[in-house]
Amino acid sequence: MPSTATVMKLKRPLWNSISTLKYCSSSALDVLRPGDILKQLRIFSMSDITEYSKLTHDSNPLHFDLELARNAGFTDIPVPGMLVASLFPRIIASHFPGAVYVKQTLDFRSPVFVGDKIVGEVQASNIRQMKQKFLVKFMTRCFKCDDNVVISGEATAILPTLTVELVNNHD
């Protein structure tokens, strides 16, 4: 049986989504424990920004006009911060179907640009049982592959179970 420090990686069929689960303290490799980390890699495209804009009606020209973005001090067109932060509920829900997201704080530290490789990470920091469900607090962060943190914060979710599902994510 693998040790509790084993890192399990599950490659996804899509090029821009890789999920990783690192178990730091669990003796049962499929049960979430404080310290456990769930990650996904995502590369945002211009198409992602367009679809996000259509869905949210956020048509800020900063995300579509390179000249305007450069005049605002960016080197390229920035990906909307809330689109990047959407990695957090995606990670949680993909591993805990039926999870209810109840709180999220966000600190936007650095811009993300189309084509950047971004890793979204949630780390369980506190788990409390509530009847037959679990209230879990997660430390959240997104970072570029060079370890530059672009978003940090905390999330709270109600999970129907602590059993971690390693499922395929579809974009």
TrEMBL record:
<feature type="domain" description="MaoC-like">
    <location>
        <begin position="46"/>
        <end position="133"/>
    </location>
</feature>
<dbReference type="InterPro" id="IPR050965">
    <property type="entry name" value="UPF0336/Enoyl-CoA_hydratase"/>
</dbReference>
<protein>
    <recommendedName>
        <fullName>MaoC-like domain-containing protein</fullName>
    </recommendedName>
</protein>
<dbReference type="InterPro" id="IPR029069">
    <property type="entry name" value="HotDog_dom_sf"/>
</dbReference>
<dbReference type="Pfam" id="PF01575">
    <property type="entry name" value="MaoC_dehydratas"/>
</dbReference>
<dbReference type="InterPro" id="IPR002539">
    <property type="entry name" value="MaoC-like_dom"/>
</dbReference>
